[in-house]
Design goal:
The chain is an alpha/beta fold. The chain contains 14 helices and 10 strands. The chain has an 8-stranded parallel sheet with strand order 1-8-7-6-5-4-3-2. Strands 9-10 form a two-stranded antiparallel sheet. Strand 5, helix 6 and strand 6 form a beta-alpha-beta unit. The radius of gyration is 19 Å and the shape is globular. It binds flavin mononucleotide. The site of flavin mononucleotide has 29 residues, from strand 3, strand 8 and helix 9. Flavin mononucleotide (FMN) binds next to strand 3, strand 8 and helix 9.
Length: 325
Amino acid sequence: MKTRITELLGIEHPIIQGGMHYVGFAEMAAAVSNAGALGIITGLTQGTPEKLAAEIRRCRDMTSKPFGVNLTFLPSVKPPDYPGYIKAIIDGGIKIVETAGNNPQKWLPALQEAGIKVVHKCTSVRHSLKAESIGCDAVSVDGFECGGHPGEDDVPNFILLPRAAEELKIPFVASGGMADGRSLAAALALGADGINMGTRFIATKEAPVHDNVKQALLAATELDTRLVMRPLRNTERVLKNKAVDRLLEKEKTLGSQIKFEDIIPEVAGVYPRIMTEGDMEAGAWSCGMVAGLIRDIPTCKELVDRTMREATDIIRARLTGLLAA
Ligand SMILES: Cc1cc2nc3c(=O)[nH]c(=O)nc-3n(C[C@H](O)[C@H](O)[C@H](O)COP(=O)(O)O)c2cc1C
């Protein structure tokens, strides 16, 4: 399948694996890229620019296909060494960067002078247009269903994607709730040029996370995610567990008085305990409603091939067939 995204990024299939904290290691990115989609290493998960440089080298040993790096710009008292991460990305020969969080404008000249295509992840049409106006090459439009940070507007993809298609000139991928060929065919119908999947890629054989995480995704339904940190205007969609129940109880009790310090035990530093050690009650971790559509743990290649096959069948047989009838 050829779309503006496969052309822009030089990939075979219009599928991107979004950056994921403590999931986006070299094994994940390489497996997705080897399947003909775009794998992404999560920059900040590596901890330092030197470790990111080493992770890029490790990934290159595992794949000759293009892969990208995610750089998430967080509001922070003590910001990470972003110039160092940018240098590691450029020196590592990376050609695709997924940015997320704050406006990436400050970093665009350095990245684009190095021939890097920048895909900025946005949760609204407003932010997508801003990304287009500052020169981003594409955007990833993340609907309310998504795992992680859906923003504060709560617009689901059935509205957000056609709205994005109406306004944007640059290519965009549909993100949030994408699971299979039905998602891909629907996203294309709504005007997107491909899909970005997060949660679905965690339930794959190669995802470098504890098996408990994969089993939790198999067990979860579409009713099992919760929104946390809304009072802090830093809303995150996470999988329900005891820590999330506690966090929501604090939000209810403290109301608008709540501060980040109040929820540190539930959110700070919990990812290694969950993703690496498999302690599923350790804290709040990002998970999309799409968990309700996850029923197996295929290899990345099986998942990508199946998605492409299903989408092709839907377009060729089901949709065209409806017209013929
Ligand atoms: C466990 C997990 C961790 C994530 N971490 C990040 C991150 O560090 N940076 C980022 O930009 N997006 C992050 N995301 C969001 C994904 O890149 C992607 O936008 C989102 O998962 C899409 O929604 P879906 O889960 O419904 O596919 C994370 C998502 C998950 C599930």
